[in-house]
Amino acid sequence: MTAQTPRSFDHALFGYAEGHRQLASTVRLPSQDMYHLSAASDLASGVKLEPAKSYVTGLPLAESRRFALIRTWAAPEMPRPGCVWSHVLLLDESVMSAQADMSIFFSLFRDPREVGRSFYSSQLTLDVAGNAPAPPNAVRGDMIADIIGTYYSHQPTFLAASAGAEAIEAAIAAVWSQQWPRLRMEFSFRTAQLGSAPRRSGRYDVQVAIPETGEDLRSADWINVAAADAGGTKVTPLRRFLWRYGRDMEKPRERFRLLVDTFLVSKTSDALPLASATRVFGELPEASEGTILKNDILGFGTNSLSICPPVSFLDMLRVLDGDVADSTFELSEIERRFGKLSSAEVVEVVDFASSDDDRLERLRDPIFEWTVARADEEIVNSVSATQMRMRILMGRPEFVSSGSIAGLPAGDLLKLFAASEDPEAIATIVNAAVRRDMGDHVQEAFKRAPDLVGRSVIEAALKGELDAAWRRPIAGLRDELRSLDLLSFAAGLADVLTIARLTDLERDVFEIGRSSESWANRWRSLRRDVSLQETLDIESSLLVRALREASLASWTLIEAVLPELRREINARPLVGEARQLLDRSLPSVGYDDNWDLNRRIMLALHGLQKRTTVSRVTLSCAGLADAEIDFVYAGPKEEPKRKVGFFWWLG
């Protein structure tokens, strides 16, 4: 915006020579431009120019793509009244786009009566250091505000002559300096004092005349901010904003206010508000206009030159989702921005893309794919759309957890179960499934992983968390459940009873452990967390089955359960299931003596001893006195009466 090296440009002289015409020039202009330039350099219609006065005219020359800056002096020495001299600076686009302070050109005019004609036959050189004018008078802010407010509102702009020629030129130069090159090339003005309204020219945007009564626009923020900026001589953030985003505006004058308003909003937030972005796209519907600003707003192709902060990613989607942004865009740019989002922002984006009322058909699948690729626990557990959560979990089984699958329907849970190959993920899914109503999917799940499902069913049941809907299907799965090491799940006798009820083994809890050895190894470590009667019932069942198994391990189990059972038998009459089971299973000692369970137990132990080997130490540890141990080895003096065909172990 500032020339660093000298720049040369053309100029011309117009004056009277048997009519108003070009007298000298460093360039030959096209005929159409010459026609307009001849008219503009002649005395303005209805203007009386005093000998000591001059005025400035600025207008674009369309055919040669130059801007003509003209100073016109009165030439009373000429034979015809109304003659003038006009020095014309012919500024091309390179000069117009490189110079920050346009007031410097106002100092380059030369009155032909002060220099020779040869001066106008050589190009002028703009040297910022050498051509710098004397410090100008303070620019009147109110006048600048008048120009900005009316000109950019497409109203007639008239400046009062009473302000003085220097102040008027300074104000015009300030507004002109603020403009970016394309807008500069369209700006037109004339400082000659005009008379009545009918004589005012429609060719010039800014003129000097009696102002017409109209709306006072100077109270608007955009005008005040722009006027304050134009009144300075430095390159400001606003001016950088205007120059960056104004250069591809097809209607620069109409877009000035939009740019200033956008700049003001952009300073208040790290992300441009959606309303401002929507306004930009709404006022710039053509894809070819404002591309630089639109891309920066969307965060596309941003670099160090970007000034306007982009909208948030979610607002970017809303902009693209609207009617105002139907132009094509690079998917890679959206992916690049997506990769910079936080996990919380990703969740918001996914929920938006998953909603039923958006129209992002071309973006939905890519967003889902990007989300799967960069998923983390926060994203998985926070997305509200089941479809998206399933998509993540199917692609990233490492994120399967009780929290991430909590809200999935039974059908989706089964799909995830069927598709998963990660053992840890499968276990998590099964643990969740047994705590929910899976409907008709229970059998299918069990067939795929019977051991895992069985264990999960039992663990859930032990914690009181097994869904009631599973209890009926389990009836058809009891054989599979019984094939498991059920006793390994129990921490106490309460667990034993729960497993017994679940597997229909309440009348034969021994089958939960399946062998005397297994029960003997676990018995003492099991918590006694049930009632005494329930404990006695279990001990009676284990005693009877140990006697029936008739193995060396039977004595180890008897050693474990018999002391407590006999203590209760000897202390008080045994009742409940324990009494009934022992009555049915122990050998008889006569119709009058069958109440003596202790004696009947001794007979059963004697019968077991006859088929297996047992040491006195083991019998002593089982709580037997020496006389009772002797009885186990020797047996009764007379054979007891038996229930025919029932107590097979007595031989």
Describe the structure.
By secondary structure, this protein is α+β, with helices and mostly antiparallel strands. The protein has helices at 31-41, 93-98, 141-151, 165-178, 181-184, 221-230, 237-246, 252-266, 274-283, 291-298, 313-321, 331-338, 343-354, 361-373, 377-382, 386-395, 410-419, 423-433, 442-448, 450-462, 471-474, 478-482, 493-502, 510-513, 516-522, 532-549, 552-571, 576-585, 597-611, 616-621, 626-634; strands spanning 7-16, 20-25, 54-61, 66-74, 84-91, 124-126, 157-159, 189-193, 206-208. Strands 1, 2, 3, 4, 5, 6, 7, 8 and 9 form a nine-stranded mixed β-sheet that branches. The longest helix has 20 residues, at 552-571. The protein starts with 6 loop residues before the first strand and ends in a 17-residue tail after the last helix. Mean pLDDT is 87; it is low at 643-651.
Summary?
This protein is an alpha+beta fold and 651 residues long.
Question: Any chance you could write out the topology, listing elements then pairs?
Answer:
Layout: E1 7-16, E2 20-25, H1 31-41, E3 54-61, E4 66-74, E5 84-91, H2 93-98, E6 124-126, H3 141-151, E7 157-159, H4 165-178, H5 181-184, E8 189-193, E9 206-208, H6 221-230, H7 237-246, H8 252-266, H9 274-283, H10 291-298, H11 313-321, H12 331-338, H13 343-354, H14 361-373, H15 377-382, H16 386-395, H17 410-419, H18 423-433, H19 442-448, H20 450-462, H21 471-474, H22 478-482, H23 493-502, H24 510-513, H25 516-522, H26 532-549, H27 552-571, H28 576-585, H29 597-611, H30 616-621, H31 626-634
Parallel strand pairs: 7-9, 8-9
Antiparallel strand pairs: 1-2, 1-5, 1-6, 3-4, 3-8, 4-5
